[in-house]
Amino acid sequence: MGFSAITPPPRSQDAHETLLEFPDNRLLIDLCGEFDRNLAQIEHKLSVHILRRGNQLAVVGTPEAQAQASAVLTQLYARLEQGRPVDAAEIDAVIRMGDLGGDVVPLDEQLEMFAAGRYEIRTRKKQIEPRTEAQKHYVKHLFEHELAFGIGPAGTGKTYLAVAVGVTMLIGGHVDKIILSRPAVEAGERLGFLPGDMKEKVDPYMQPLYDALNDFLPGKQLAKLMEEKRIEIAPLAFMRGRTLSNAFVVLDEAQNATTMQMKMFLTRLGQGSRMVVTGDRSQVDLPRGTASGLADAERILEGVKGVSFNYFTAKDVVRHPLVARIIEAYDRADGDAG
Questions:
Q1: pTM of the predicted structure, to 2 decimals
Q2: Long-range contacts of 239-243 (CB under 8 A, 24+ apart)
Q3: Helix, strand and coil percent figures for the chain, each rounded to 5
Q4: Which of the residues 63, 133, 171, 303 has the least number of beta carbons within 10 Å of its own beta carbon?
Q5: How far apart are CA 334 and CA 123, in angstroms?
Q6: pLDDT digit string (tens) for 276-303?
Q7: 247 beta partners
Q8: 102: Cβ–Cβ under 8 A, 6 or more apart, which residues?
Q9: What's the rounded Cα separation, in Å, for the pair 276 and 337?
């Protein structure tokens, strides 16, 4: 059908034109779709006119519509470069997510930026910069490795930085969804005796993950993404039986996962996904005699290709300075006791 099925917006003095160049002609053909149906869908949704000129696409429309259509085309092309398909559902999802904003940064450019000494994580609401050397190496490994561990005391940014990278990769189209999980370990009160349905019972355990997301995404966009299941927050037990493809997956408080739970979680990894496992070996809440899956994973996965282990100390604490001194005092006490 091509462009003939779409009535283009009238050209006027207010109309703007942007030329986008796509070096791989084969990918450009896939971007346009059979009979240019992908371009027609974008034209219809965003009230623009898209013309193909060799390996370029000219986008005509108002400044706002033209900018949004250009961002959508760029994001879809980046998806094709990663070997991932583009269909009507994906185009619609990218258009609906267009108001998330943020620059689309290809992974190779992100790593080049790190190599130049600039460690920046761009999210919708703020730009995050790791402060310590350990945090910088951790963030770099989150982009480089399919499975990364962040191990260290509270307040070192393990989970916060992982969620920030996940949001960046979602905005950039590098993954389709974010999945955040924690073991729902009972501490004092049994879940069955707490009021409410299952979501209300487990939400208190998940609150730190909600807090991090609220720092990086506006409330309306976050609510929409969660409603569409493009961002999920769920207890670790809910991961059983799933294959997590094209997702950025974070397991927080992993020291409270058993060995079997850890193995179950790690084997959920699917094509195009990244996994991050964070934990603090000094805060295990498992029943006495139950081995921590985090400690076992460190031992079993040491030296496995594609897996990185990143360690933090009290020097990496970015909360109140007193927190670092408290951690150091407890570390000294543990050393004396040993």
A1: 0.68
A2: 239/181, 239/264, 239/265, 239/268, 240/264, 242/268, 243/268, 243/270
A3: 50, 15, 35
A4: 303
A5: 39
A6: 999 999 888 888 889 999 999 999 999 9
A7: 177
A8: 122, 123, 124, 168, 171, 172
A9: 32
